[in-house]
Amino acid sequence: MRSAHRADTTGPSRRFSRRNVLLGAATVSVGGAVAGAAGLSEAFDTAQPAQSAQDGQDIVVHVRDVRAGRIDVFAGERLIEIRDRDLASRLVKAARGR
Amino acid sequence: MSSHREAPEISKDPVADSSDLYAFVSPDRPDTVTLIANYVPLQTPAAGPNFFEFGDDVLYEIHIDNNGDGLPDITYQFRFRTELRDNNTFLYNTGPIEALDSENWNRRQFYSVTRVQGGRARRLARDLPCPPCNIGPLSVPDYAALAADATVKLKTGERVFAGQRAEGFFVDLGAIFDLANLRPFQNLHLLGQNVFQAAAEPVNATDRVNVHSIAIQVPVDDLRGRGAGYRYTADDSASVIGVWTSASRQQVRLLKNRQTDVVVGPQVQVSRLGNPLFNEVIVPMARKDLWNSLPPIEDKNFARFVEQPELARLLPVLYPGVFDNLAALNKAETPRADLVAILLTGIPAGLIEGFQNNTGEVQADMLRLNTAIPPAAKEDRFGLLGGDVAGFPNGRRVADDVVSIALRAVAGVTFALVEPNFTPDEAASQVTPGLSAADVTAPFLKRFPYLGLPYDGFNNPVGASGS
């Protein structure tokens, strides 16, 4: 048995299309922008950690190699490796604020 | 130390830092094996207001290889969850904690136990309570009773405990890392002989501190590979299990306001421990973090550090004229097959009469336990080197003097087992930091979970009054 960890993964098995990766990236981006304004009041209003950090809905995208379009998508307890040069370049543009 | 803060990165992450691993046939229940993995090392008992705890974001595992391939055949996973009872107090407790469900106890931890075998994960229990930290006599009047209540026998036969215990590892840390200036031999040390006129008493640097232990006692047939019907004997490799522990974290963490941090991605191993001192003393500092991230099956890549250990080269230099035979062995660059056997493959039959804990050719750092060898009627703290085949490096018991055993092995005592023409230096069988289990203030227990009751924060550290 090579990997005990994988056997215990309980998160839903999802397929990641370019569209929902973009949606995920956009969600992360918007969430980050809002946090600065609403973060404090939110922290005092909710004693428990916010659900978004608990329910496996968050998606984090790491553009590993822009030229090759290699992108790592982190969601739940999974890492999904995708190749999409167009998406990678668009994310880089987004990161540059363009 | 055994594996406390043994690598640069994990030294900054104590919640995930495995410090000691024990595996032994339970002396009071010889039809079971006890496995103990210690984390969160070097806890000062007076630790308020935020007392030590396991990490809710850490996956703790104890792995068992029962067919010698260096891969886990059985894994016990432990996941923790913390609950706050009162969001409006800064206190860990607002009165005495006399029961595990005490309303005075604000910050409690619970955990689940999952057994992974054959690619299938089965959760054996969830919401098991940890006892509180031992704050002091007013807050925790009877830690032993709380710990007893937090010791649970599962329906599947395992007995489990997860919570604070007294540190059982004993080591003169100050001496060892001050250029291996062992106090009983300090006047023979290369530099020490200019400073010290005589030997001195050792100091147990890890006395009166606590750890967090994950202890599980498992029916022995549930760990061995051939089932209950098989006749296991001490000379059969099927009787030998290899054990290690690991801690993992999810790969990505986005820091926000700490209450809404995003944690995603697969588990990534950040800490590993099999034999005590392997990563600490054998692996060079530049590779320690890497070693912690790898599974035991990769340890063939570290075999050269076992075959030519740096410590063996240092001893003749630091103690001139004391380790001449070891110096000659070093000069010949003869691979240390004895250390490779002890640490990476297990000791094959034929080297020590009536003993083997060999798992085959695969080189992997695992704590190897021959489960067919019964507990010793009277333990020898030097384990196998003291003629006690139930002790380290056949598994590891809580009172085994693993530092002295390792020092003596590296100094050449065990090389004579594989090369009869080699004569170990006289000092090799005497070298020791000079400590024993008697130097641990909290006595070990004769029953599960065997490690002593944790030191309380009111009376430790000891004040001028000695109270």
Taken as a percent bin, the fraction of beta residues of chain B is 15-25%
Greatest contact between two chains? A-B, 31 and 33 residues
Strand tally of chain A is 3
Number of domains of chain A: 1
Share of residues in helices of chain B? 10-25%
How confident is the prediction overall: mean pLDDT of chain A? 62
Which regions of chain A contain 5 or more consecutive residues with pLDDT less than 50? 1-54
Walk across the major sheet of chain A and give the strand order. 1-2-3
Quaternary structure type: heterodimer
Helix content of chain A: 40-55%
Strand content of chain A: 15-25%
Distance between the termini of chain A: 47 Å
What best-fitting shape of chain A do the alpha-carbon axes yield?
flat
The termini of chain B sit apart by 28 Å
How many helix segments of chain B? 10
Protein architecture, described:
The complex is a heterodimer of chains A (98) and B (467). Chain A has 98 residues and is of the alpha+beta class. Chain A has 3 helices and 3 strands; from the N terminus they run ααβββα. A 3-stranded antiparallel sheet of chain A has the order 1-2-3, covered by helices on one side. Chain B has one domain. Helices cover 15% and strands 24% of the residues of chain B. In chain B, strands 3, 4, 5, 6, 10, 11 and 12 form a 7-stranded antiparallel sheet that branches. A 5-stranded antiparallel sheet of chain B has the order 1-2-9-8-7. Chain B is globular. The mean pLDDT of chain B is 96. At the A-B interface, helix 1, helix 2 and strand 1 of A face strand 3, strand 4, strand 5, strand 10 and strand 11 of B.
List the topology elements.
The complex is a heterodimer of chains A (98) and B (467).
Chain A: H1 4-7, H2 18-45, E1 59-65, E2 70-75, E3 78-83, H3 85-95
Antiparallel strand pairs in A: 1-2, 2-3
Chain B: E1 18-25, E2 32-43, E3 58-65, E4 74-84, E5 107-117, E6 120-129, H1 143-149, E7 152-153, E8 159-166, H2 173-176, E9 210-219, E10 240-254, E11 262-273, H3 278-282, H4 285-293, H5 303-307, H6 310-318, H7 324-332, H8 337-345, E12 367-370, H9 402-410, H10 415-418
Antiparallel strand pairs in B: 1-2, 2-9, 3-4, 3-10, 4-5, 5-6, 7-8, 8-9, 10-11, 10-12
